Amino acid sequence: MNDIHVEFIQTAWGIMDVLHQAQSTADGLAGCLDILCKALSCEQGSIWVKEKSGKYLYALAQRGDANLIGCRIGVGSGLTGQAAVSGEPFKAEKSRCEESFCAEEKEAGFPEGSLLWIPLKTSAAAMGCIQLGGPLQGCFKAEDIEAGKRYSAIISLDLEDRGVDSLPDADQKTIASLRNVVKDYGKDDSLAHVLKKINLDIYENETMVILGESGSGKSTLLNILGGMTQLTSGRYELDGRDLSTPSEHELTTFRRREIGFIFQAYNLMPNLTARENVQIISELSSHPMDPDRALELVGLSTRANHLPSALSGGQQQRVAIARAIAKSPRMILADEPTAALDYDTSIEVLTVLQDVVRNQKTTLVIVTHNNEIAKMANRVVYLKDGRVSGIRVNLSPLQASQLVW
């Protein structure tokens, strides 16, 4: 048996194993995409699935720094939509020069260069397509396409058996948008490129988890979202307002009124009670929540008059959550909110956060190194070396109480 056959069998086995182990369709597709990109030496890829009406395709898995997750493309529209109904793979060496390349694909940021589309289909029907790009050898070869067809057949059979129970709402509102965001520190020989052309949308009333190794740019990205750090270049919008180059007054107002912060170290005033810690923040907001109501929402009504020193770590973090929601913020940004807590307390805190998003209809962005926390998110963003290396949709996010580590 030659090396090509051995590699194919290993890849096919890896795909089947990922699909078998996956808790959801999106998890399985994200894992398959990682394997495919590695097997075919691709830098970028996405998997598109047809929703029940058969009118649109949604991107459920992505690898690379395009802005595809949450996008929809009409079946038959553009190169992606055509791939879903054509029944055969096709490639485009210069995709953006193709006459059929549609506006949705341009807006989503499909990369230039050699792209390959492989239909997802069974004998009964076409279900979507796999899109791959940026082959390291410069272009896709015939053997790549044939291998891709076989891998696609495995994924298609699983997709047919598993089904897709729900898809993102086509009318889901984007509240925050980052386009080609760059953040540098230092200059000349000491110049450090921390964020490198980040493209990302954040939706209303969603929980997003940002994962990445230390130094990947997670906290810097969160600080830009919260107005704590200004970007070097690019564009950042919140509710249509341009926050790319704000004045100090604009930044201060933005932080006070629109953003709730939750930090790993709690950052409570030690000489103030729980109620006073919440009240001092709510007084900065133009539409604050009553401090006692905020404490009630996090289960601390009976501890309102206690100083932080009289509270456990989990209770202090819940005061920090109450302080964040008392502003009635547009977004809550949490930087490693459970890193200093034990497992049971972490689950309590994450449950409170999940309840806040559900009941207060706000948006939550969590930066963490804990992969298990990602299972409670609507979307998971992976950062690597200052770039978005992938985005995954969770069609069935877990309850915080179901997380195990």
Mind explaining what this structure looks like?
The protein has 405 residues and is of the alpha+beta class. It has two domains: 3-162, 2-Layer Sandwich (Beta-Lactamase); 204-229 and 243-402, P-loop containing nucleotide triphosphate hydrolases (Rossmann fold, 3-Layer(aba) Sandwich), CATH 3.40.50. 34% of the residues lie in helices and 26% in strands. Strands 1, 2, 3, 4, 5, 6, 9, 12, 13, 14, 15 and 16 form a twelve-stranded mixed sheet that branches. A hairpin with a 2-residue loop joins strand 15 and strand 16. Helix 1 packs parallel to helix 5 and helix 2 (25-39) runs antiparallel to helix 5. It is elongated, with a radius of gyration of 23 Å. The two termini are 41 Å apart. The model has no long low-confidence stretch (mean pLDDT 86).
